[in-house]
């Protein structure tokens, strides 16, 4: 089993003795879980092994084809990863390694069916989450990730996840902006790999990695004579989730869409697929079923129309999948999954750290309109400053939804997530590991010892008398110099020198309005955090479009 606490390095053996253009196969030896048997490597790639998620999931429902053995012990066999030797390729050279790809497809298919996911390095975290929340949870072993970057496959493989590195895309090392040429080029890989699988006589379920399966999808796509069953993306089908049979019509559709992508690279794979599909449906050349929006909701339907922001909001008993689209950038997708409780990646003990130290605070006051947004941004900057001084991680509060036009913001509580007003990717560049989602403490992987170790409610009062006090269950802390605000020395005295408070895993603050540390704003010694605060906040909208 994989260990989340005892990360260990795997040295990858790659024998590069073939000429450029030939295939290289990573044949993984059986690796003992003691970590003593290592496969030695000419290139000596190394990766950290994350926590085994298998035992943490509930009962598996089973699905079409192979099963994942979540009860393995002792030694396990690492899945094979086949890679392409050329360092960089473009669309026209795709197909150079199709023979190896065909072999790998058949190795991973079961009952003539395979689940395929396309992945680049920038979306590796989402790819891992899809594996843990969907494939592993539902015991779906007939899958294969198809990479456009070698590092993506190496990382997935280090978690015992099967990946075939089909191509080394020139932009495969990072996520590409939505609707950019690089984004479109990468999405066309989905069309190509589905085409190749269909030509091999396989039934294919293609799934984007920003999806979570809540139920076994094969048990809810019941049109036996349909060439394609596809998710709705509003006015057209969504090329990120569909089941396709290996019929002559399906093969012709994908071949035409692929050829169109080569002739018109500015068209997206979804547009190419949908336009050709619409024509073939009109001419009665293909049988297509659009899946129920209620069972197979896209991001607009599930999050916005469903008014879902935080874990537990409007549970969807009929939902089979959740597609986390209709929001741009991978960072925002990750954050939204986390807030809705659909995140299971625990790298570096993101959830499970028994020694984690956190700050929790609230935004209880609605100041009205734009003033609320301003005050809540200021409070978060105060929290981040405290976290910097105390070496504690901030657990985000809820935010009021003033000015948000999207349906998710119209929830009953009128409370929103951080993405409602601020760009997640910009924030992550400065504070990526310095904060956690609002529902963090609800996650089952957070140790009970952490959840149970918290202070009473604290309130820093910069306008009251110069003394500590107790008001009900709230402990009030008042700085000596109201005009200067809270000093760094006072922060250290209150939260470090007080050993009882310092020993707690969680500092609970009532709120942090107007408590900006003036020393952080002025003294040269705090330039690092000051620069982060200046660069980390960029206004946007709920979908991160602006």
Can you give a write-up of this model?
The chain is of the alpha/beta class. The protein folds into two domains: 59-213 and 223-291, Spore Coat Polysaccharide Biosynthesis Protein SpsA, Chain A (Alpha-Beta Complex), CATH 3.90.550; 343-535, Rossmann fold. The protein is built from 15 helices and 22 strands. The strands form seven sheets. The protein has a seven-stranded mixed beta sheet with strand order 7-6-5-8-11-10-12, sandwiched between helices.
What is the structure about, briefly put?
With about 550 residues, the protein is α/β, with parallel strands linked by helices. The chain has helices at about 100-110, 125-135, 150-160, 180-200, 250-265, 270-280, 300-305, 330-340, 370-390, 425-430, 450, 490-495, 500, 520, 525-535; strands at about 25, 30, 75, 80-85, 115-120, 145, 165, 205, 210-215, 230, 235-245, 290, 320-325, 360, 395, 400, 415, 435, 455-460, 470, 475, 505-510. The protein is about 30% helix and about 15% strand.
């Amino acid at each position: 089993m994989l260990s989340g606490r005892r990360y260990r390095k795997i040295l990858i053996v790659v024998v590069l003795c073939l000429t450029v253009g030939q295939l290289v196969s990573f044949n993984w030896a059986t690796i003992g879980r003691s970590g003593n048997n290592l496969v030695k490597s000419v290139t000596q790639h190394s990766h950290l092994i994350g926590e085994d998620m298998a035992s943490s999931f509930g009962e598996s429902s089973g699905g079409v084809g192979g099963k994942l053995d979540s009860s393995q012990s002792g030694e396990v066999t690492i899945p094979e990863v086949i890679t392409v030797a050329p360092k960089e390729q473009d669309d026209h050279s795709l197909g150079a390694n199709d023979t190896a790809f065909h072999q790998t497809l058949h190795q991973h298919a079961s009952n003539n069916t395979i689940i395929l996911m396309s992945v680049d390095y920038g979306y590796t975290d989402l790819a891992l989450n899809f594996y843990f929340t969907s494939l592993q949870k539902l015991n779906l072993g007939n899958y294969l990730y198809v990479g456009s970057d070698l590092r993506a496959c190496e990382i997935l493989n280090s978690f015992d996840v099967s990946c075939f590195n089909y191509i080394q895309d020139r932009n495969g090392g990072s996520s590409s902006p939505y609707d950019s040429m690089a984004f479109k080029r990468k999405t066309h890989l989905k069309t190509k790999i589905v085409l190749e699988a269909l030509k091999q006589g396989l039934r294919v379920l293609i799934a984007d990695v920003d999806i979570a399966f809540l139920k076994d999808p094969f048990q809810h796509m019941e049109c036996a004579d349909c060439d394609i069953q596809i998710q709705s993306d509003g006015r057209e089908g969504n090329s990120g989730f569909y089941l396709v049979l290996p019929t002559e019509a399906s093969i012709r559709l994908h071949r035409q869409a692929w050829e169109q992508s080569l002739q018109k690279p500015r068209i997206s794979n979804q547009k190419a697929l949908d336009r050709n599909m619409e024509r073939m449906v009109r001419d009665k050349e293909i049988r297509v079923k659009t899946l129920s929006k209620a069972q197979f909701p896209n991001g607009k339907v599930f999050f916005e129309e469903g008014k879902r922001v935080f874990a537990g909001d409007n549970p969807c008993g009929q939902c089979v999948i959740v597609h986390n689209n209709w929001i741009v950038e991978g960072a925002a997708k990750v954050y939204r999954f986390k807030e809705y409780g659909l995140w299971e990646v625990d790298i570096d003990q993101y959830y499970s750290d028994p020694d984690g130290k956190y700050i929790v605070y609230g935004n209880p006051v609605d100041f009205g309109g734009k003033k609320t947004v301003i005050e809540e941004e200021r409070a978060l900057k105060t929290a981040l400053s405290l976290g910097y001084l105390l070496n504690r991680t901030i657990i985000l509060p809820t935010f009021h939804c003033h000015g948000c036009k999207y349906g998710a913001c119209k929830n009953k509580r009128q409370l929103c997530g951080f993405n409602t007003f601020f760009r997640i990717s910009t924030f992550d560049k400065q504070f990526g590991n310095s904060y956690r989602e609002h529902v963090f403490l609800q996650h089952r992987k957070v140790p009970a010892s952490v959840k149970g170790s918290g202070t009473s409610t604290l309130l820093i009062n910069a306008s009251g008398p110069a003394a500590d006090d107790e008001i009900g269950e709230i402990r009030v802390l008042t700085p000596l110099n109201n005009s200067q605000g809270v000093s760094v020395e006072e922060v250290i005295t209150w939260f470090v020198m007080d050993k009882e408070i310092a020993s707690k895993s969680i500092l609970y603050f009532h709120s942090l309005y107007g408590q900006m540390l003036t020393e952080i704003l002025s003294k040269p010694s705090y330039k690092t955090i000051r620069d982060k605060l200046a660069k980390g906040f960029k206004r946007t909208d709920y979908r991160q479009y602006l």
